[in-house]
Amino acid sequence: DADVTQTPRNRITKTGKRIMLECSQTKGHDRMYWYRQDPGLGLRLIYYSFDVKDINKGEISDGYSVSRQAQAKFSLSLESAIPNQTALYFCATSDSLDRQVYNEQFFGPGTRLTVL
Amino acid sequence: GEDVEQSLFLSVREGDSSVINCTYTDSSSTYLYWYKQEPGAGLQLLTYIFSNMDMKQDQRLTVLLNKKDKHLSLRIADTQTGDSAIYFCAESREYSSASKIIFGSGTRLSIRP
User: Fold this and answer.
1) B39-83 pLDDT tens trace
2) Minimal CB count within 10 Å: which of A45, B60, B79, B99?
3) CA angle B59, B62, B64 (to 5 degrees)
4) What is the distance in angstroms between the Cα of B28 and the nearest Cα belonging to chain A?
């Protein structure tokens, strides 16, 4: 079984719709992240959470919100989707730095979102 | 990823060496990384190097770090078709109470026969 799972894997939606992307992990990590990947732009951080009560904005948080429902679950919402949010979205996790110092991140398989 | 720069494409012949280059901006980065993304999959850590090292070798992979020039490279010896992927350079940046990873735009490596 995959350690980091994302649902759905693919989603097509219309402008103005609210959608939620979900991420679950079985690695027992405290830290979780949401990134979006666009061609030629690499990965950009949307939100990150270092524990259930700690949520922080990344570099491109406008238009997105998150919820850390439990240590193992971190969901990303688009309140009113727009076409320029069409992208590949990745969830990632990492262990806290007192347990592993080089901060490896473990990625889910991605969700391909298309906003028409 | 605008502060970590890498070329977007690289094409090499099977059996040759591939060298993927990256420049970064934060001289205080403690770790630098190479992640690999295969088609339809998420990123996986390929290798990393601590900032006080100049070189790290792991089987077919050699990482070179030039801190003065803020330049990182990944050399893949005897490149195989299974090496076709996007390779992301990344650096670890320290903030007030945490560290974050900043990714480059990725270099797509294609292998020709």
Assistant:
1) 888 999 999 999 889 999 999 999 999 999 999 999 999 999 999
2) B60
3) 160
4) 14
